[in-house]
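Dataset card, provenance and construction

Sequences and ligand SMILES were collected as paired inputs. For each pair, a complete structure of the chain with the small molecule in place was predicted and serialized as structure tokens. The example below shows a pair involving zinc ion. Curators did not alter the output after generation; any descriptive sentences attached to a record were derived from the structure itself.
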Amino acid sequence: MDLRIGIDLGGTKTEIVALSPTGEVRLRRRAATPQEYDAILDRIAGLVRDAEAELGVMVPSPVGVGIPGSLSPATGLVRNANTQCLNGRPLDVDLSTRLGRAVRVSNDANCLALSEAANGAGAGHAVVFSVILGTGVGGGIVVDGRLIEGYNKVGGEWGHTPLPWMTPEEYPGPRCWCGLHGCLETFLCGPALAADWKGQGQRDASGIVAAAAAGDETARGALDRHADRLARALAAITNLIDPDAIVLGGGLSNMAHLYDVVPRLMERWVFGDVGRTRLLRAKHGDSSGVFGAARLWDKGW
Ligand SMILES: [Zn+2]
């Protein structure tokens, strides 16, 4: 049996999936993410070994791991992970040692991009730009099925580029945890949308959308500003790589109005007409990360 195993290492939950060569799910399981580095290594190794034992796998399967951060090609160590205990650690090497095989580690937005381009919303499109709009904001680029991680492995790090065409009121933008001001993440993430809404109620995407639908003008305003900023941000990436399809994942991608409003707003900012570009909701939802991690050993990575 020729399985591929994917691990999505989240801040609170760690998920494992085992995919058949044709992409069918053979096993899928979630466990809590420990808050200490060695315990995380033990948890991942245990999930992999248990899965292989249960499926009767005799030969070690390739393992890919998606993390909310990346491995620095200069140092080989994890950087920019919001699961802090991972930072400064050689996660791929330590997991390889524990599991007795090579392990590939990549950013969770890259995993979303791989998964959605392979058999999700972006399937059949040559150039796919995928975005996570959630607690954080990230991006990933896949061209002809191949992930463009970049020379320094910062390819697609769209969330930490500045909001384009800032108004005087927006400039210089909130300070980001990365140390800069005005990163897209500080305008487009879930907490930023919630902070922009001055009303009372359930402060997640569905709550703010419901408030707007019920006539709350402050909720409507916050959603309008968010959509306009997202359009500017996607226009800038379109001017650079002009993707065939843009796929939105993460909690905010469930806001249905984005797929109607944002493409029209983008027309104002893109240097050319963009009526052919598709803006699509991630097909695999919350599972995109773990499916993409299992695909880190696919062609050309
Ligand atoms: Zn930033």
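Derived descriptions for this record:
The mean pLDDT is 94.
The two ends are 22 Å apart (CA to CA).
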